[in-house]
Amino acid sequence: MSQPAATPKVVAYAVLTGIGLLAAVVLGDPAIVALAAPFGFALVIGILTRVAPLPEVGLCLDTPRLVEGGKATMTLELSASATTPRCDIALGLPLGLSATGPTAWSLRLDEGSPVVVEIQITAAHYGRFSIGPVTAKVPGLFKILERSGEGGDTLQLEALPKAEALRTLARAREVRATAGDRLARRPGDGIEFAEVRPYSAGTPGRLNWRVTARRGEPYVNLRHPERSTDVILLVDTFSAAVLARQVRAASGLAAAYLARHDRVGLVAFGGALHWVEPAMGRAQLERLVAALTATQWHHSYAWKSAETIPSRALPSTGLVIAISPLEDPRIMNALASIRAKGVDLGVIETIGRRPSKTRSPAGSLAARLIELERVGMRDNFARRGVPVVGWHDGESLEAPLQALAAWRRRARGRVAR
Amino acid sequence: MRLSRRRPQFTGVALSIFGISAVAAWAISLATENRTATVALAGVTGVVTFAVALTAPFARARNRTSATGLALVGAAVVVGAMGQTAADRTTVFAISGAILFCAAELADRSLARARGVERRRGVERWSLAWVLGVAIGSAGLSYAAIATRGLLGGGGPAALAVGTAGAMLLSFLAALVLRTRARSGV
After folding, report:
1. A304/A285 same-domain check
2. Which of A202, A224, A246 marks a domain boundary?
3. Nearest residue of chain A to residue B93 (CA atoms)
């Protein structure tokens, strides 16, 4: 138990009392003591009276996880071993969490009757948060002495990034041998009809009796097999400004691809590098969301290249979707290196809100210059076979994904011709 | 649920400044012609110092500066009441001390009420009574002590009776304090 400590009032009241007594002695007038007597009395009474002990604090959260923007209820239970006329309790919430009501209370505690306080906590931002312990202060009479300390455990609250439900997804060029939802281009065993072909040894498919009877030679029905693909989400963590948007986008993409039975992996590339190797299933979604929740911006001047990414986290047959504002030269260099290895790559460029039309001539010129630079950069990527689609703040991710899918369809057509 | 708002804090601070201003004004009114300037200077400086202290964000600075302000106002009262008789001086000092103490406590409590803090029912129920009790009690006790001193100065049966009563009162108070401390274990 913490011992009562003197507050700054002790010094103030002691000095006032001392001045009064000294003046009475120096001036030879005992009546002056009456002027300082209340301060002296308060000081003596405050020191002599007992300061109630700190209360026992119990903290509890109704859920350890919630989605960004969701609410959790926190319960604070305070029980005192002696009647406490006043107890000041304060709960400090980390940045990213907010409470709908007050987070500091001044209350009276009676022995044997615990006080329960409920707080609604809203997670304004994704992340892992530590809540507690609470700060408790029990002042004595006249606040001359005071007990202070911390109570309760530290609770962990995980706010998962809010993912957007996506319907359009870019398709990978290469498929894996395992079954999935993606139609492979080459024929095989599947459900989706592809074409009718004359039979030759080794041709997969079933005999088409009608065509065979009409043509007089065996024809078979070919089908597209459903296969899974590898998708790697590469999140640029060099820029703090758009990181939250990127994490939300990656979370939505991971959920959508995993729902289509693809293997999904994650590479967070920035000041700190971390990755999740591609895998499929619900457990993988949990792993990816946990990794995305822990994704943070780390300031670093160190040069980072694509060589630092482990090869098992970046399989060469998969589709890499990079989500980046394309502002840091390190990420641009890494993307170029990844593409140079022959990896199928698409970039979603996170851009701020669309500029307002009312702009000064100088501002307009600056904006045009910046846009010109960005167009040049996008063309540079496009020449290497990397589509770059812009994603403005406040807009749905569906539009850039459709643009990405369309670009890749067009590119495939050009290759076929 | 009762949230602390700006109004009670402002009212408390304003009342405390009003209280010590009244004491300073009283001191000026009591001062004789040749002391008025000194008393006025000390009084006004004290009130201003006290008022400025209340804007300090930290408790330590606030307490020290407000104590300086109170000491200045107290000095003004002492200088202002110098020309009075002993009985009048005692009355002036006792009342001024009580008002200054109440003002200091009121300001401290008002400023301790931070915004956004939920004050639940029953907090510090007897706190105000304690403040007034100490202010009035100490004023009365001081006055009684000074009066007793005057009474005891003459000697005789009255002095013996008062001395005996005072000794009994002191021993009773000492026993009460010791008993309270033994029970609380502090």
Report:
1. yes
2. A224
3. A35
* pLDDT tens sequence across B120-168: 877 766 667 777 787 788 777 777 777 766 665 655 666 666 666 666 6
Cβ contact, residue pair B180, A50, below 8 Å: yes
Helices (H), B55-156: 59-80, 86-112, 127-154
Distance CA A91, CA A60 (A): 13
pLDDT, tens digit (0-9, with 9 covering 90-100), for A89-142: 999 899 889 998 889 999 999 888 899 999 999 998 888 999 989 999 999 888
Tell me whether the omega of the peptide bond preceding residue A133 falls within 30 degrees of 0, making it cis.
Answer: yes
A83 and A212 share one domain: no
In terms of domains, do A130 and A248 share one? no
Distance between CA atoms of residues A330 and A327, nearest Å: 9
Over residues B6-16, mean pLDDT: 71
B135 has a chain A CB within 8 A of its CB: yes
Higher local confidence (pLDDT), B124 or A198: A198
Residue B176 has pLDDT above 70, yes or no: no
Nearest to B78 by CA among B35, B108, B117: B35
Is A16 in contact with B64 (Cβ distance < 8 A)? Answer: no
Q: How far apart are CA A288 and CA A273, in angstroms?
A: 14
All residues at 6 or more sequence positions from A243 whose CB lies less than 8 Å from its CB, including other chains: A235, A237, A295, A296, A297
**Within-domain flag for A176:** no
What is the tally of structural domains in chain A? 4
In the predicted structure, residue B29 carries a pLDDT above the cut 60: yes
Chain A residues whose CB is inside 8 A of the B134 CB are: 38, 41-42, 45, 142
- Is A22 found in the same domain as A119? no
Q: Check B123 against A86: CB less than 8 A apart.
A: yes
Per residue in A227-256, pLDDT (tens digit) is 778 899 999 999 888 999 999 999 999 999
User: Does A299 map to a domain?
Assistant: yes
Domain enclosing residue A38, as ranges: 5-48
Q: Do A341 and A195 share a domain, yes or no?
A: no
Global pTM reads 0.70
Extract the tokens encoding A94. 């980390």
Mutate to test the interface with B, among A3, A35, A113 (most CBs of B within 10 A): A35
Give the domain CATH number at A333. 3.40.50
ipTM for the assembly: 0.78
Give domain status of residue A139, yes or no: yes
